[in-house]
Design goal:
It is built from six helices and no strands. With 269 residues, it is mainly α. The longest helix has 38 residues, at 151-188. It comes from Caenorhabditis remanei.
């Protein structure tokens, strides 16, 4: 009689643990082809096996696409992998803007105390500080909006795929139970063993249908929404770059304006 331990492959790599990016971000990607890579003397039906292979391939592509979009959003390899948990943006603009405001306050105060120069002559850095802080606000706002735009794709990666994996595991365990029931029936040849085999067969078929129905309704039928989410992300990215450029003041320099020369050397006449 086969058991779960005796039929487990001993030369296969570790199975992926549940995480947001289950396959693309796993260190042993390529060693295994699915969340339940085991060697058995029995196998899924051809239709179920084909559907599972398609889901695994789709999940792997979705992981890589989502990772790329998150990196494009924040341009940071560390925080990009944390965006499915919390909003994390680059704080360079916020830090620079706060520093400039602090610098201006200290600079003006120091000039008033140390000299008699007119503080109005000091060139203000407030416009630059205001622009940087506004850019930081825009970054956070757009980041939240982009995460909302990708909600459908994120749901597949973080929830739907792992529900499929759970149903697949249940189906595989049902196949194991049916295999064990058949083995017992061949040994005992009793009415009770036949009933146990019939019950295990019904359970196996039900588990297979539940898994396949879930794949069709919750994954395959939702691919259009996943694609639409990516297109929304693209459109919003274009608007984001335009909004950021609009925040930067337009410094126009007149064509006839010439920079003042502070050099004491005069050109020859």
């Amino acid at each position: 009689m086969t058991t779960r331990e005796s039929t487990r492959s001993t030369d296969e790599g570790p199975l992926p643990e549940r995480a947001f990016y289950g396959l693309a971000d796993h260190p042993n990607h390529g060693i295994f082809s699915s969340i339940l890579k085991r060697k058995r003397k029995f196998a899924m039906t051809d239709e179920a096996k084909k559907m599972c292979q398609q889901v695994e391939a789709y999940k792997s592509c979705a992981d890589r696409l989502h990772l790329s979009l998150m990196f494009m959003l924040v341009e940071n390899p560390v925080t990009s992998k944390q965006l499915h948990e919390r909003v994390a943006i680059d704080l360079s603009c916020s830090t620079a803007g706060s520093y400039l405001r602090f610098y201006e306050a200290i600079n003006r105060k120091g000039r008033k105390l140390g000299t008699k120069s007119n503080s109005k002559e000091i060139e203000s850095v407030e416009p630059a500080a205001k622009t940087l802080l506004a850019m930081n606000v825009e970054q956070e706002k757009r980041c939240r909006k982009q995460l909302e735009n990708l909600k459908a794709l994120s749901k597949f990666i973080g929830e739907d795929y792992w529900e499929y994996a759970r149903l697949r595991k249940v189906y595989w365990e049902a196949m194991e139970q049916y295999d064990e029931a058949v083995t017992n029936q061949n040994k005992e040849r009793s009415e009770q063993a036949e009933q146990a085999t019939a019950s295990a067969q019904t359970k196996r078929n039900d588990c297979r249908m539940k898994m396949m129905d879930f794949i069709v309704k919750s994954i395959n039928d939702q691919r259009g929404k996943h694609a639409e989410a990516v297109l929304k992300f693209r459109d919003e990215a274009i608007l984001y770059h335009k909004a950021m450029s609009d925040l930067i003041p337009d410094l126009k320099v007149e064509a006839d304006a010439k920079p003042e020369s502070k050099s004491s050397i005069k050109p020859p006449k």
